[in-house]
């Protein structure tokens, strides 16, 4: 049986997510260290980076740990063949690389964690998983990776980046926590906002994407209810829909942060297609990783002076799928 401690923490505005993960760990018999911290981060990158030193402290305290962002849910036992160092990854038409919401580390990776912290501080404008992506192709630490999926409900990926699941899902990693301030997450991962849109339009469109990626219920039922225009509080799969006023929101944020259901994209298929469109040039993530450099001492120590493309350090990174039951 796996010997690890699940670790996470939450800020006051994320405390509402902790209950689910606590229940999952209790059900599956996993040790959990879930800590509340008082600090509220004005800058989302600082919030991301805080977990690096936290993970280091927990590795020193517990040994082998499985870091999960507090909004994650564990829906079936962690496969025995998952081993540290391990991280979740994604591959979409617009980008690909590491996603640090699911991580497994032990004492053998303390050197890597120290480097991660060092270069996160050196590059404070980039998310922590950009930095870890850079390091994976610059220093010889062998990562195992578990792929995640945003849209395809028939995927065999063990991590579902939403509230949905299928027979292969091990961990759900929802993103409804971004609903209150979706634009700050877009800026963090994309560098800037789309031009030609008002702030209101941008928020509504990003929330529509959050809906399509996260919703674990029946889209056709929701479509029918919203078209009929009779029900004012139709609740389905953790979301609330007002078909009279054409408003909707995750149940957690209803009604104070309800939004316009008629905003684009207007179908799951269109949202999926838009998400996977190939960019005309380099993505913000690829450009960011390309711009990072090891300092002279580290370059000499590890024998590499710069990063190459994400996940390109073949022989150091391998993908791990959950085995079928």
3D architecture notes:
With 325 residues, this protein is of the alpha/beta class. It is built from ten helices and 14 strands. It has helices spanning 18-28, 44-62, 110-122, 128-136, 182-190, 199-214, 219-228, 268-275, 284-291, 296-302; strands spanning 5-10, 31-36, 65-68, 73-74, 86-91, 96-105, 143-149, 159-160, 171-172, 234-236, 239-242, 247-250, 259-260, 317-319. Strands 1, 2, 3, 4, 5, 6, 7, 8, 9 and 14 form a ten-stranded mixed beta sheet that branches.
Provide a compact summary of the structure:
With 325 residues, the protein is an alpha/beta fold. Helices cover 34% and strands 19% of the residues.
| Major sheet summary line | 10 strands, mixed
Name the shape in a single word.
Answer: globular
Order of helices and strands: EHEHEEEEHHEEEHHHEEEEHHHE
Mean pLDDT: 91
The rounded distance between the terminal residues' Cα atoms is 17 Å
Number of helices: 10
Low-pLDDT runs of 5+ residues are 305-316
Structural class: alpha/beta
Radius of gyration: 20 Å
Beta-strand fraction estimate: 15-25%
């Amino acid at each position: 049986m796996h010997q690890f401690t699940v670790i996470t923490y939450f800020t006051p505005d994320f405390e509402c997510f902790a209950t689910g993960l606590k229940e999952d760990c209790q059900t599956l018999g996993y040790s959990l260290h879930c800590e509340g911290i008082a600090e509220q981060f004005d800058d989302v990158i600082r919030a991301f980076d805080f977990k690096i030193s936290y993970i280091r402290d927990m590795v020193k305290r517990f040994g082998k740990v499985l870091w999960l962002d507090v909004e994650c849910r564990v829906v079936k036992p962690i496969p025995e063949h998952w081993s540290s160092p391990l991280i979740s990854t994604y591959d979409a038409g617009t980008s690909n690389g590491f996603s640090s919401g699911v991580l497994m580390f032990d004492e053998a990776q303390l050197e890597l964690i120290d480097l991660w912290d060092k270069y996160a501080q050196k590059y404070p404008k980039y998310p922590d998983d950009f930095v870890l992506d850079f390091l994976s192709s610059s220093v010889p630490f062998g990562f195992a990776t578990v792929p995640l999926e945003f849209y395809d409900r028939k995927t065999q990926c063990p991590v579902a980046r939403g509230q949905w699941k299928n027979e292969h899902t091990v961990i759900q990693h929802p993103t409804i926590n971004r609903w209150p301030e979706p634009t700050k997450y877009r800026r963090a991962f994309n560098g800037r906002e789309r031009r030609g849109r008002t702030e209101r339009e941008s928020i509504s469109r990003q929330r529509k994407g959050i809906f399509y990626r996260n919703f674990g219920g029946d889209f056709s039922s929701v479509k029918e209810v919203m078209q009929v225009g009779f029900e004012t509080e139709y609740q389905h799969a953790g979301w609330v829909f007002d078909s009279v006023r054409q408003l909707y929101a995750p149940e957690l944020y209803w009604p104070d942060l309800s939004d316009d259901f008629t905003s684009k994209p207007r179908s799951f298929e269109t949202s999926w297609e838009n998400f996977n469109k190939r960019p005309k040039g380099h993505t913000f993530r690829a450009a960011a990783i390309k711009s990072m450099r090891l300092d002279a001492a580290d370059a000499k120590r590890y024998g590499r002076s710069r990063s190459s493309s994400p996940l390109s350090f073949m022989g150091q990174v391998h993908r791990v799928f959950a085995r079928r039951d």
